[in-house]
Amino acid sequence: MKCTVCKGPAVIDIRRHNANFCSEHFLRLCRDQVAKAIKDFEMLRPDERALVAVSGGKDSLAVWDILLELGYQADGLYLGLGIGDYSDASGEMARAFASARGLHLVEIDLPTDHGFDIPTGARAARRVPCSACGLSKRHLFDEAAREGGYDVVVTGHNLDDEAAVLFGNVLHWQTDYLGRQLPVLPARHGFPRKVKPLVRLGEREMAAYCVLRNIDYIVEECPMAAGNKHLGYKEALNAIEATSPGSKHDFYFGFLARASAHFTTEAEAEQQELHPCGRCGAPTPGEVCAFCRLAERATAVPVSLGRRAEASR
Ligand code: Q46
Ligand code: ZN
Ligand code: ZN
Q1: Do the Cβ atoms of 129 and 122 come closer than 8 Å?
Q2: Is 196 helix (H, G, I), strand (E, B) or coil?
């Protein structure tokens, strides 16, 4: 297998590009794809400060690395979710990456700083863990970006993630979500801009990127992900992609080019009705935001004392 660019020995094939790459040209491809996404969707300018939501997984560490390689100003934000050993190990990966490179990592620990962990919060609020987790992450990322004076929050969602979310939203015609499923959400109502620079790169490419760049990342999935519908959607799309390379890309980018605008009016209408949360000031459609309500219910249940004592910043 030879590199399509230089004819040297290739280390990876990318079927949707019908091409093979050596290490150097693969790393260049990853940077070029991120640069193209940033330019096409006007995600980020070099004079802006970005806060990268880092989980310790391959995608978020890779996007942080690529942004720095491209010359952007990017700090990291690690959020400790209190999900047992998984959180301990993922925090260590994020810290090791940052300290080896002398980068600034902002840390928030849900059990220490807000008095509850995701498993407790989900049980108390009778939500599935990923729902309690997702709303906590959105809230705390926004808050940290506002407090730190960052212009934009960056997440490591890749093409596989976005195609799977789109697949689920189309399957159930969740039109309000479809209107917001964009690689850039502009800043408004006190929310910072949110961008997903990895939308042109797949999961397998991000794992290869980390291996070739010697980035250690947490390989285990979050234990709460078991039974998560998105894993099923990813498997379904992988089966389609195997027989028809490029399908995920066409599905997602075809949606952005030809369909997403049809759903934005509904999403915009919801945005208009936001006002500050009575407790924390975050924009919300109700009196009290979803995070404050979750925190209130979750802290009514004592967090296991062991975990609280263990949690550290
Ligand atoms: S961390 Fe949180 Fe994920 Fe774990 S609880 Fe679900 S959403 S699966 S990316
Ligand atoms: Zn090459
Ligand atoms: Zn609030």
Answers
A1: yes
A2: coil
